[in-house]
Task: structure prediction
Amino acid sequence: MRHLIERYPPAFAPEGEGGAPGGDGGQADPGNSQPESNEAAGASPAGDPPAEPYRPDGLPETMYGDNDHGTIDKMAEALKGYRDRDAQRQLPETAEAYSQFDLESAPEEIRPMIGELASDPLFGKVSAIALERGVPVGDMQAITLSLYSAAHEAGLFEQHIDPAQERSLLLPDSAATLPKEQQDQAIDQRLQANSDFVDLMVQNAGLDKAVGEHAKLMLMDTAAGNRFFEWIAGQVQGTDRAQPQPGQGGNTGASRREQLRAELAKPEMQPGHRMFDRAKYDALESEYRTVVGN
Result:
């Protein structure tokens, strides 16, 4: 029996002796004798696969790394590339920068039109929107050159006109040696005379006003157009026709009457014209009445 008791100590031993719960020499609580679970130790449960790296929705496969750190590194590298590209594109500070083309690099056939864009109000409005939307100068100019080249190939552009050159072609021979200011006045007088002739045809010859205005709009910006008006005026007024000389026969009275009529029909013979000469007009009118007999 003694041996049996020694082998199996009593469940309730005196305090301080072995075997009692909570005693220094007692056995551990069977309920607490189990090892900590895998979850409490921070490890995955036995048999569960390791957690997958985070994969943001829509991210290209080429951006994924071996783990989350690798993915972030690749994304940071791509972001730096985008930032470097945007820095190289250099957005302008003002809309005027869009019209500063390198004309030498533009196609020769559209250089005159491209050179005038700086003063083109339509292009100015487009440039303002481009600046607002963050369009780089290079992109805007590339689009413009492509558009103008295509329009030129399609025949949408009129022949380019150099106003200074056209004016020089209208300089009368009689003013060739005059100072520049007087030359400009002579050219302006010639242009005004052609415009007045069209207005006279509207007033006295039944030309539709809209037709006359259209003709001036389409023709008066070139020297050739102005010479056309002068040819028409010569035909109408008879100033370009050879007149019979005394002794050569023909009805000299009728010829003189036509001459006087043509002189009186000239724009400067009209009372409202800025070069109207009352004395000359009265003299021609008096002679005309004498020839006609009124």
